[in-house]
């Protein structure tokens, strides 16, 4: 909602206070993309559809994926063991139930819409998908399980769209126009806090919750340090892939996280060779 | 490039073998550099192998004890757990180990360098640090101990997600409902029994009719029985024709007879391969065998006399204890210090559930060499300690010469087998007689009593033989 009229500093401060208040009270809601949900429904009614297609489709949407996991783990379904990945959810619940969950999730929150910020939202999804895909590549290189890495990469910035929507809703209510740098600053500043709340509320696996909270501050992680490091690397690689102007290769490499994860310059070269592959995945999942 | 740093000894790889080699060199007053490509020290043993798997094993055993106690004390456990919960102590264990080892290296004045090393020639190493800087080092003696990694056969698509190797297995997020393990060696059997005890339906598949071919058959039979009691299975004499992830929920393993084994996850445990590719061994003139191992003599000397190779890159089995001894021996030999013959009595310890251990000759080898050796058996159910611990499944076999006089070997399966075997090791090293186990007083109740029972069994057989001869 760009405007030529700049809000006064005090207005922005008040707005930020209101945002902080909402975050502190947990007054934030997980959004869903109805488009993805409708695709799920279409797939479910397709006689040629199979569980692999359904799983892949849900994977395209971090919010839906997380929502499905949360519901799959809820007392309503009482899984034998915690459902921590979509493959696991498919195995545990089957196509029909999973489709129902996806449909229910879409009904519950209606639409994820941030009027005027569609491109930003899309960019966030693309970044999350790229982070998830890169996280898998890094995990394979470090010979650790990629399942956990993907989830950490995909969901690490789950707080950002929530902050964006909450802030823009507040701004709309108070008739204040927000500039993108302000929003970007708020998203960067508050998304880990919101992400942690979401992780807690959804009962996400502990390593994913820790990665969401500490991927940018891994020295303060008291456990799952490897997942935090891996997510940090994946996040940087995703930024380099999607916004090379903001994250040129020199800037990408110039970070201690690579050495912390014991990735040598040749390892970074190898990871960069997967850029096209990751971009293909991101484009294939274009929402 | 600056002038190369000069050392007396360069050790490449800070796993168990490299550490012991470096410490031995430093204790002899030599200037030692220890190069490690990973950030931590300890190698696969600490981060991906021995310590993580034993930590998981300990959790499995504790859970099993609690489950059994729960029947008496009427409490229940959560039916399933995240792997991370079962490994919650791992970071503490690894940190404590890392801290202790770092102190030991510092105390001995060893230069610990973080980087990837490769030979420029037989006396010069070039090291690249993680930030890309280059450094050259030279030394009169070089010890290579870069360890090994799981072997990934081309025909099996290890993706570290559904089809895992022993490196990626423990970073699984949750316990699967079912697990196929390919390979009946030490790693395959250890993990098969751990996951079976944790309630996972395990199918262990191997070409051989029974797993752990190098171990005493009686011991292995008890292991297989234990696996089956947990609801898991061993499928021997099986050739695998195809492994694939069905893109949905299962790994499908097709066997030569057309049978398809379905499981949620798979562990590929088909041996290990030495980490030699990046070492530039050809620049130093070091020979590599067709199997990708470095041939060495009994002192771990390669074909280049001042270059030694130790640990997994020399030969299997990949045991930390063996690697440590090789590291120590190599450097003692290089420095013309007495080496000793400890290598001939390295015990085998296998951390399956139940665990197994062996020292000296087993029954089969003794029969080949002595025709009619005497075998004394002591079942754990005969000793009070096993009854108290609720671990009465176990067996100690004592192998003696046909006169029942000289001890030739000891094999054990059951609780504490890997500790108990050291009593037999000392007895073998000191050439103790079978009778000496009867002349000693053992604490009561202990598992060590089984030695006395097995010795009595042998002496009983000696008496019968004598009586038969006299008649």
What is the helical fraction of chain B, as a range of percent? 25-40%
- Largest contact between protein chains? A-B, 35 and 36 residues
Give the N-to-C terminal Cα separation of chain B.
Answer: 86 Å
- Give the termini separation of chain A: 22 Å
- Mean pLDDT value of chain B: 90
| Helix percentage of chain A | 55-70%
- The proportion of strand residues of chain B reads 15-25%
Low-confidence stretches of chain A: 106-112
Key descriptive features of the protein:
heterodimer, A: 287 residues, mainly alpha, 15 helices, globular, B: 471 residues, alpha/beta, five-stranded parallel beta sheet, 22 strands, 33% helix, 23% strand
Summarize the structure.
The complex is a heterodimer of chains A (287) and B (471). Chain A is mainly alpha-helical.
Overview of this structure, please?
The complex is a heterodimer of chains A (287) and B (471). Chain A has 15 helices and no strands. With 287 residues, chain A is mostly helical. The radius of gyration of chain A is 19 Å and the shape is globular. The two termini of chain A are 22 Å apart. With 471 residues, chain B is of the alpha/beta class. Chain B is 33% helix and 23% strand. Chain B is built from 13 helices and 22 strands. In chain B, strand 12 and strand 13 form a beta hairpin. In chain B, helix 1 packs parallel to helix 9 (320-334) and helix 3 (50-73) runs parallel beside helix 6 (186-197). The longest helix of chain B is centred in the N-terminal third of the chain and has 24 residues, at 50-73. At the A-B interface, helix 3, helix 5, helix 6, helix 7 and helix 13 of A face loops of B.
Question: What layout of secondary structure does this protein have?
Answer:
The complex is a heterodimer of chains A (287) and B (471).
Chain A: H1 9-25, H2 34-44, H3 51-59, H4 62-72, H5 86-109, H6 118-141, H7 146-155, H8 159-173, H9 180-202, H10 206-214, H11 225-242, H12 249-253, H13 256-260, H14 265-272, H15 275-284
Helix pairs in contact in A: 1-8, 2-3, 2-5, 3-5, 4-5, 6-7, 6-11, 6-15, 7-10, 7-11, 8-9, 9-10, 10-11
Chain B: E1 5-12, H1 16-27, E2 32-36, H2 43-47, H3 50-73, H4 83-86, H5 90-107, E3 111-114, E4 116-121, E5 124-128, E6 134-144, E7 148-150, E8 163-165, E9 178-182, H6 186-197, E10 201-205, H7 217-229, E11 233-235, E12 240-245, E13 251-255, E14 260-263, E15 265-268, E16 272-274, H8 281-284, E17 307-309, H9 320-334, E18 348-350, E19 356-360, H10 363-370, E20 374-379, H11 384-389, E21 395-400, E22 407-413, H12 417-429, H13 449-470
Parallel strand pairs in B: 1-2, 1-6, 2-3, 6-17, 8-15, 9-10, 9-15, 10-11
Antiparallel strand pairs in B: 4-5, 5-6, 7-16, 12-13, 13-14, 18-19, 19-22, 20-21, 21-22
Helix pairs in contact in B: 1-9, 3-6
């Amino acid at each position: 909602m760009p405007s030529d009229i700049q809000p006064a500093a005090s207005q922005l401060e008040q707005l930020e206070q209101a945002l902080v208040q909402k975050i502190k009270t947990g007054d934030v809601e997980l959004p869903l993309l109805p488009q993805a949900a409708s695709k799920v429904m279409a797939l479910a009614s397709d006689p040629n559809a199979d569980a692999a297609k359904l799983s892949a489709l849900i994977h395209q949407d971090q919010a839906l994926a997380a929502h499905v996991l949360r519901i799959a783990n809820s007392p309503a379904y009482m899984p034998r063991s915690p459902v921590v990945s979509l493959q696991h959810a498919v195995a545990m619940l089957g196509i029909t139930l999973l489709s129902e969950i996806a449909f229910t999730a879409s009904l519950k929150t209606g639409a994820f819409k941030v009027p005027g910020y569609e491109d930003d939202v899309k960019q966030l999804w693309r970044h999350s998908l790229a982070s998830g895909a890169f996280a898998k590549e890094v995990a394979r290189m470090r010979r650790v399980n990629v399942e956990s890495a993907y989830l950490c990469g995909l969901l690490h910035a789950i707080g950002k769209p929530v902050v964006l929507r909450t802030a823009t809703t507040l701004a709309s209510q108070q008739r204040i126009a927000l500039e993108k740098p302000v929003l970007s600053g708020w998203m960067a500043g508050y998304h880990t806090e919101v992400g942690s709340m979401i992780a807690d509320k959804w009962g996400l696996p502990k390593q994913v919750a820790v990665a969401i909270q500490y991927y940018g501050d891994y020295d303060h992680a008291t456990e799952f340090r490897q997942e935090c490091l891996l997510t940090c690397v994946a996040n940087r690689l995703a930024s380099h892939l999607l916004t090379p102007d903001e994250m040129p290769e020199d800037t990408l490499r110039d970070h201690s996280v690579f050495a912390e994860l014991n990735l040598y310059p040749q390892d970074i070269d190898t990871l960069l060779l997967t850029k096209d592959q990751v971009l293909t995945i991101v484009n294939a999942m274009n929402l | 490039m600056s002038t190369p740093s000069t050392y007396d000894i360069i050790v490449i790889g800070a796993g168990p073998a490299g550490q012991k080699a470096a410490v031995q060199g430093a204790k002899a007053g030599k200037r030692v550099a220890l190069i490690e490509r990973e950030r931590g020290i300890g190698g696969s043993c600490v981060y991906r192998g021995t310590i993580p798997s034993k930590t998981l094993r300990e959790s499995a055993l504790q859970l099993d004890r609690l489950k059994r106690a729960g029947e008496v004390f009427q409490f229940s456990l959560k039916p399933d757990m995240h792997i991370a919960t079962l490994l919650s102590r791992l970071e503490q264990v690894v940190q404590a180990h890392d801290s202790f080892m770092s102190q030991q290296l510092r105390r001995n004045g060893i230069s610990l360098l973080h980087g990837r090393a490769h030979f420029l020639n037989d006396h010069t190493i070039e090291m690249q640090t993680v930030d890309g800087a280059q450094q050259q080092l030279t030394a009169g003696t070089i010890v290579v101990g870069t360890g090994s990694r799981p072997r990934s056969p081309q025909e099996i698509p290890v993706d570290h997600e559904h089809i895992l190797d022993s490196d990626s297995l423990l970073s699984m997020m949750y316990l699967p409902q079912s697990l196929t393990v390919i390979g009946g060696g030490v790693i395959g059997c250890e993990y098969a029994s751990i996951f079976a005890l944790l309630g996972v339906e395990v199918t262990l598949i191997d070409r051989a009719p029974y797993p752990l071919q190098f171990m005493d058959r009686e011991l292995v039979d008890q292991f297989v029985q234990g696996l089956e009691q947990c609801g898991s299975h061993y499928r021997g004499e099986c050739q695998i024709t195809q492994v694939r992830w069905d893109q949905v929920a299962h790994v499908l393993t097709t066997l030569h007879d057309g049978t398809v084994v379905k499981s949620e996850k798979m562990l590929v445990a088909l041996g290990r391969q030495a980490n030699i590719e990046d070492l530039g061994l050809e620049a130093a003139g070091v020979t590599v065998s067709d199997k990708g191992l470095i041939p060495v003599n009994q002192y771990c000397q390669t074909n280049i006399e001042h270059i030694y190779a130790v640990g997994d890159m020399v030969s299997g089995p990949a045991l930390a204890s063996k690697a440590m001894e090789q590291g120590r021996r190599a450097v003692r030999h290089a420095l013309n210090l007495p080496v000793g013959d400890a290598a001939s009595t390295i015990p085998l310890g296998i951390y399956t559930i139940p665990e197994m251990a062996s020292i000296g000759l087993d029954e089969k080898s003794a029969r080949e060499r002595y025709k009619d050796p005497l075998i004394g058996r002591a079942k754990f159910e005969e000793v009070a300690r096993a009854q108290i611990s609720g671990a009465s499944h176990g067996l100690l076999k004592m192998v003696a010469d046909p006169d029942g006089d000289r001890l030739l070997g000891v094999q054990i399966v059951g609780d504490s087998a890997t500790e108990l075997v050291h009593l037999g090791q000392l007895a073998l090293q000191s050439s103790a007689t079978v009778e000496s186990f009867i002349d000693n007083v053992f604490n009561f109740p202990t598992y060590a009593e089984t030695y006395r029972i097995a010795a009595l069994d042998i002496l009983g057989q000696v008496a019968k033989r004598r009586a038969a001869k006299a008649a």
